[in-house]
Design a protein that fits this description.
Length: about 950
């Protein structure tokens, strides 16, 4: 790498793809006069693949755009970037060329180069270069040698993926120019490496034995770290320790991201902070701590956002350090110029490189300026060494002692905080194991001995203990910064109405008036269900807990700023909170009444968790309270799309299938995967290798169905298994896998066995029809066919399937779980589903995710399979089965209503009574008495 591009950080992964299309950009021309490296960057066309999943075979169909620059700035992202260009040999001699990506920190790059027909491609993949480095202390860049025959051209594609943002270029070398470049690189970097080793040795010896001033040692440490940072940028440090590219890139990151740490320490020692505003030093300590945290997270979880955060921290901290230095000069404060002048030069150099890397300032001369400052930093410091020798004995020992004390105190506080966080995380995880081993046998005992009244009591309190432990785990996740936000677009009023309605039975049982209201009938916003559930449930549970009989609890939701912000207000007429206690209620483990004979139980975790979850959701919470009058909590949360860009999950529709344990304030929600996730119920899969046939069939059904297409049986199986369509229309004769094999595979798989299949064929003979029908095809259609004929075929199959759905739906309600005879794959599936629910009958936490896991299916496959067979969601299936089992036990008088409710997985008796009456039109007690 040239000296004027020492710190150029580029990661450009070029991925080559099949393309016979003419390129919009002019080709790179190679002639007999081409002796020096040819800069190919300006000839590139570029495509940003935000999904990072476009396959090689499809990339040539995408719309590339000219790069328009002689360099490429690769952003910090998970996206893939594709580039392409053509190269043409206008000479009469065969050319042996090498394509070289000029940046040694590239993490993943795939070269694809066509033959002269542009139809076939040679693929070479690179990761960060480690074991293939020619010289361990010299940077190595990805190279791809190829030959170009006279008067021919080739197309080159490349795919680049890198967590780290990079600045780079692409060059085409002849053998001579490549050799010359390597020789130049060896000379330049050999000189620089020698100088850096000499400097490190010099300052290490001086700092250890001659100059004992803390500021000199801090500067020495900073200089050593900067040397490591340089080698990290050159991809030298990582490969010195390991041949594993994934570990090497983390070592490189650790090196080049550590500059703010030593820079902060140095500026604290070099400037007169006792005469500067106090907040200056606090900001610097913040930068040091932030650098440590970002570095740790970047090494543990090597993702682009940690790397980008590190770059922003380098730029922001460098600007602040420069500001403090200039402020000190203006105020004529001591600045220790022997250290700060070279330090500021080096810091500015590093900052300019990163400003360029972020794309904030795109001026090519920045690299030359940065390189010059880097050289001057080292030369000026050597010049100042004589003065440093002379002034060594004048160092301020008081400053040394003070710094040592501050560092020791910070280390102790950090250690205590880490110990506390680790303790809570470890103890919570450790407690879950024995509680799980207690909870499982207890559930078995409750089912085995339904008349034993003590067992349900033990079960409820064990589950309550598990809830408390889960809260502790949430607290530890928040402290560790592992609580991520995942929002989805929802009807917020419907969500709020459904959630709050779960408290109705609790209000009735305690004789408390419960009032709810919505400002609008339908408001769509972006919310995180899991976290908002915990917030509202905690607040409502507290409200009912502290409100006496005859009191009132209210829950309202309103909106501000054109529905960009939701205001949730929860009030009660309970015992209230004293004014001197209000500012402490969100502190962890704080209890308003902490006396031994307090009236209300609690751990002091709930409100602390609420406050921290509100902060995670970028909101705010306020509380107003008057003793013996009541308390009001008001939460403001952003629900607009702009606030949550980058954190939005698949949008979901609302359901009313919430199960609430009112006695304990715990909510069991159906998985969002059990909703439709925006999917259309009517899915039609067309499998035919003829695109015109697919287009024609699509035109017939596109008004009534969401259409999926596949060009052969193999692709059809993949799409059918993934999406579970309602109907499949398949051709018989197809490449890779014909219709017979396609039908056989689907009909023998329990995930897809229920799907009606219509076979299309030009074969009108009876043998072909019989073979298709024997393999499970539901109908046969001979080409050519007309629109009315295929419409009738599909309509009849859907009608038959609807009849089966009614039969299976009726079977689930009326037949006992152990009285089903297996005579088909679909009946076997229903039997298996019932067996899984039966095995988890008493487990109140059994949800769609667990159901799908036990069935060895994805949640989408399970949902659509159940919907197709029974016209019920997974939650409805589980609930109806439990109610059916409860009805059977009630008829047998196998225990009290309460015992039976717990046996079939209902933790709230009031909720069980409510849903049982909705299902059977009588209460459980009345059902038992009939």
């Amino acid at each position: 790498m040239k000296l004027n591009s020492l710190f150029s950080f580029t990661s450009f992964c070029i991925f080559v793809i099949i393309s016979g299309r003419t390129l919009a950009q002019a080709p790179v021309i190679i002639t007999s006069k081409t002796k020096t490296p040819v800069a190919a960057t300006a000839f590139l066309e570029i495509l940003r693949d935000t999904s990072a999943s476009i396959p090689f075979e499809q990339i040539s169909k995408q719309a590339f755009k000219p790069l328009g620059k002689d360099y490429f700035l690769f952003p910090y992202t998970d996206d893939a970037h594709w580039v392409r260009f053509s190269i043409e040999n206008k000479d009469n001699v065969n050319k042996k060329l090498t394509l070289q990506w000029i940046n040694s920190l590239i993490e993943n790059i795939d070269f694809y180069i066509s033959d002269t027909t542009h139809q076939h491609y040679t693929h070479t993949a690179y990761k960060l270069i480690t074991d293939k480095k020619e010289k361990k202390l010299i940077e190595s860049e990805p190279e791809f040698p190829f030959e170009l025959a006279p008067h021919t051209s080739k197309i080159i594609y490349a795919k680049i993926r890198s967590q780290r943002g990079l600045y780079g270029t692409l060059q085409v070398h002849s053998d001579d120019s490549l050799l010359q470049k390597k020789l130049n690189t060896y000379v330049e970097q050999g000189f620089i490496n020698g100088f850096l080793f000499f400097r490190m040795f010099l300052i290490a010896v001086l700092g250890a034995f001659i100059i004992t001033l803390p500021i000199f040692r801090i500067y020495s440490l900073h200089a050593i770290v900067k040397s490591f940072a340089f080698w990290g940028i050159m991809n030298v440090m990582g490969p010195l320790f390991t041949d594993d590219p994934d570990i090497a890139k983390k070592i490189n990151f650790l090196c080049y991201n550590s500059i703010p740490l030593t820079a902060g320490l140095l500026i604290l020692y070099s400037l007169a902070f006792d005469r500067l505003p106090k907040w200056y030093s606090k900001v610097i300590y913040f930068f040091i701590a932030a650098n440590i945290i970002i570095t740790i997270f970047g090494v543990v979880d090597y993702k682009w956002y940690w790397l980008k955060a590190g770059v922003y921290l380098i730029v922001v901290s460098s600007l602040f350090y420069l500001y403090v230095y200039i402020y000190s000069l203006i105020k004529k404060l001591p600045t220790n110029s022997y250290y700060t002048i070279p330090f500021i030069m080096g810091l500015t150099s590093y900052m300019l490189i990163h400003l360029r890397l972020l794309g904030i300032i795109e001026i090519k001369i920045l690299f030359r300026i940065a390189s010059l400052l880097f050289v001057l930093e080292n030369l000026i410091f050597v010049f100042f060494l004589g003065q440093i020798f002379r002034d060594a004995d004048r160092s301020k020992l008081v400053a040394e002692k003070q710094l040592g004390f501050n560092l020791e105190q910070n280390a102790r506080l950090k250690e205590l905080d880490n110990l506390k966080t680790t303790f809570f995380a470890n103890i919570s995880h450790e407690l879950r194991t024995p509680i799980t081993l207690i909870l499982g046998p207890l559930q078995e005992l409750v089912r085995k001995y339904p008349t034993e009244n003590l067992l349900p009591l033990m079960l409820r309190n064990t589950q309550r203990l598990l809830t408390l432990i889960n809260q502790l785990l949430d607290i530890s996740k928040l402290e560790a910064g592992q609580m991520s936000v995942k929002v989805s677009k929802q009807n917020t009023n419907q969500y709020f109405r459904t959630l709050t309605s779960s408290f109705t039975s609790l209000a009735e049982s305690r004789q408390i008036a419960f009032e709810t209201s919505n400002q609008q009938q339908e408001v769509w916003g972006y919310i995180d269900n899991d976290k908002l559930d915990k917030i509202i449930i905690n607040l409502l549970s507290n409200a009912f807990k502290f409100t006496p009989k005859g009191g009132t609890v209210t829950a309202h939701i309103t909106y501000e700023n054109d529905f960009r912000k939701a205001i949730i207000t929860i009030s009660d007429t309970g015992i209230g909170i004293k004014k001197d206690k209000l500012d402490k209620i969100f502190d962890r483990f704080y209890q308003v009444d902490s006396s031994q004979n307090r009236k209300f139980e609690g751990t002091g975790i709930g409100l602390a968790l609420v406050k921290e979850l509100v902060d995670v959701l970028k909101g705010s919470i306020k509380v107003e309270s008057q003793e013996n009058v009541g308390t009001t909590f008001s939460i403001q949360l952003p629900i607009d799309k702009k606030t949550w860009e980058g954190m939005i999950e698949e949008e979901v529709q609302q359901t009313d299938e919430y199960a609430f344990n009112a006695s304990q304030g715990a909510m069991s929600l159906p998985s969002t995967a059990d909703n439709n996730n925006g999917e259309q119920d009517n899915l039609l899969l067309i499998v035919d290798d003829n695109a015109d046939i697919r287009t024609y069939i699509k035109s017939i059904f596109e008004k009534d169905f969401q259409i999926m297409e596949a060009s052969n049986g193999k692709e059809g199986i993949e799409k059918a298994t993934e999406r579970i369509p309602n109907v499949i229309i398949s051709d018989l004769m197809m490449p890779e896998m014909d219709g017979f094999e396609f039908c056989k595979v689907l009909k023998s798989d329990e995930k897809t066995s229920h799907i009606p299949i219509i076979m299309l064929t030009a074969k009108a003979d009876a043998e072909s029809k019989m073979e298709g029908l024997e393999l499970g095809a539901d109908d046969y259609l001979t080409k050519p066919f007309n629109k009315e004929e295929i419409l009738v075929k599909v309509k009849n199959l859907i009608s038959i399937r609807e009849t089966l759905r009614k039969w299976y739906g009726k079977e689930i309600i009326e037949l006992k779980p152990d009285e089903i005879k297996v005579n088909s794959i679909d009946e076997a599936f229903i039997t298996k589903a019932k067996a899984v629910v039966e095995a988890n009958l008493a487990n109140s936490q059994f949800d769609l995710a667990h159901f799908a896991n036990d069935m060895a299916l994805s949640t989408v496959q399970l949902r659509r399979k159940l919907k197709a067979l029974t016209n019920q969601t997974a939650v409805e299936f589980i609930r109806r089965y439990r109610l059916q089992r409860a009805a059977s036990l009630l008829k047998q008088k196998a225990g009290t209503v309460s015992d039976i409710a717990y046996q079939v997985g209902f933790e709230s008796l009031s909720y069980f009574t409510k849903v049982f009456q909705e299902e059977f039109n009588v209460t459980p007690s009345e059902y038992m008495g009939n």
